[in-house]
Amino acid sequence: MRLIVWTLVVISSVLALACGGAAEVRPRYGGTLRIMLRQAPASLDPARLNASEEARIFSLIFEGLTGYDARGRLQAQLATRWQADSSFQRWQVWLRAGVKFQDGTPLTADAAAASLRAANPAWMVNTDGESVVIQTTAPDPELPAELALPRNGIVRHTGNKTVGTGAFLVSNWQPGRSLVLSANDDYWGGRPFLDSVAVTLGQSWRQQMVALELGKADVVEVAPDQARRAGLSGRTVVESASNELLALVFTREAQSEEEARVRQALAESIDRSSIVSVLLQGQGEASETILPNWMTGYAVLFGPTADRPANVQLPAAATMTLSYDGSDPANQLMAERIALNARDAGIRLQTIGSTSSADVRLLRITLASPQPQLALVSVAEAAGLPAPRFEGTSPEELYTREKKMLHSGRIIPLAHVPEATVLAPAVNGWRADLFGGYRLADVWLGSTP
User: Fold this and answer.
1) Is the pLDDT of residue 422 over 70?
2) Where in the chain is the domain with CATH 3.10.105.10?
3) What pLDDT, in 10s, does the model give residues 223-239?
4) Are 201 and 40 in contact (CB under 8 A)?
5) What is the C-alpha to C-alpha distance for residues 337 and 272, in angstroms, rounded to an integer?
6) pLDDT at residue 329 in the model
7) Angle at 66 between CA 48 and CA 168, to 5 degrees
């Protein structure tokens, strides 16, 4: 199931790119790629990343011991191989030779170990020759996948600056506002074609599309409900797999059985199909699961909840408040639709602007990893829920942990949607990525038709 879905995503993206960039076939060096993002990180230290922050630009600067290819398959990056003992509590990871940080300092096992210790205080990290040895307090069969998380990017601190081993190095940084990256001439994977990348942060979807129209940006994000329109207008649109979860998240546990019943009735009242087909213009999949079906293959086991019998009386309940991110008009429309569905079910739900005091929040949560166990943990972290603990990698355990999170009454999944990126005509060599990552080492700028 996962391979079929992702193959379709790749085919559609490749066709779009082929149509948009057929005129330019010979890569060339030079130029500045201008990117705009909604997120506005205040720090460039990977260890300080939380589950909801933008991580794509970090991968341009910092690399992990492991990583994922464009199809979401785990692969070696700064490591060449790894091995665990029989308990999966002691891992040894061997480093790639000849890698340097962007300031010219060689990457050593000591430097990698120091970086991992800062990001993972619960790990015991030491060195053994040119390898890093990681010991965990409990079995961790997915540790190689954890090493690929953005927060585990290998970093070296030099005064107030942080340097990595990636294809681009920081030349100017205005926290929360802008970031300018320059090509790393000594990058172990080969110098990128671009001379530099200029990133403008904290820009709404509307601001980004206006900048693209005015020729002031080359790569922008586009809202799910606008992606199809952008494609129909002749723009090159590249989409990830459906890796963003739309969900309602309650700020606290239900205080009584009656409150739990109201939450369940709310979950059953929502017309998810209309939200996707109308408000999101068909971009995404309605879902009652936290993880998308392409990742797990078992969403059908949850199935649509049965309709509540008409003669069941809900307990009297005070009006609940629902907050949403008002910077995206689609969020307001979704919140209003959910409130309308709730009213039809006898539940009073008042929509308000973003506030921490609301009873329930409408959130967009980007899954942190193609590895489903880590993705589920990242959702729990972003939603403020207790993180599930895994003892293995079996589908049965994954299903049980996800079911427990759903039955907690703290989260109501609505849909899974893809991340969409729009490219200017001059952008060439862009590769579709399962998780919407920016793989810029092979991107180059050609002449605009």
Assistant:
1) yes
2) 244-418
3) 988 998 899 899 999 99
4) yes
5) 10
6) 81
7) 65
Token reading at 236 = 């090159």
Whether 187 and 104 have beta carbons less than 8 Å apart is answered as no
Asked if 168 and 4 touch (Cβ cutoff 8 Å), the reply is no
135, two tokens: 């010991």
Burial class (CB within 10 angstroms; exposed 0-12, middle 13-18, buried 19+) of 98: exposed
Contacts of 97 (CB under 8 A, 6+ apart): 130
Q: Looking at per-residue confidence, does 449 or 319 come out higher? A: 319
Other C-beta atoms closer than 10 Å to the C-beta of 97 total 10
CA–CA dist 304, 306 (Å, integer): 6
- Among residues 152, 80, 165, 83, the alpha carbon closest in space to that of 123 is found at 152
Per-residue pLDDT tens over the stretch 241-269:
999 999 999 999 998 888 888 999 999 99
pTM above the 0.85 mark?
yes
* CA–CA gap between residue 150 and residue 148 (Å, rounded): 6
430 residue type, one letter? W
With bands split at pLDDT 50, 70 and 90, how would you rate the model's confidence at 22? very low
Please tell me the number of Cα atoms within 13 Å of 207 on its side-chain side. 12
Q: What is the pLDDT of residues 205-220, one digit of tens each?
A: 999 999 999 999 999 9
Instruction: Output the pLDDT for position 159.
Output: 80
Helix/strand/coil (H/E/C) assignment for every residue in 351-397: EECCCCCCCEEEEEEECCCCCHHHHHHHHHHHHCCCCCCCCCCCHHH
* Assigned CATH class of 63-165: alpha beta
**How many Cβ atoms are within 10 Å of 301's Cβ, its own excluded?**
10
Residue 396 · residue 298 · CB < 8 Å: no
- Architecture of domain 244-418 in CATH? Roll (3.10)
pLDDT of residue 220: 97
Indicate the length of the chain as a whole number. Answer: 449
- Give the Cβ contact number of residue 350 at 10 Å: 14
* Homologous superfamily (CATH) for 9-20+27-59+167-218+424-449: Periplasmic binding protein-like II (3.40.190.10)
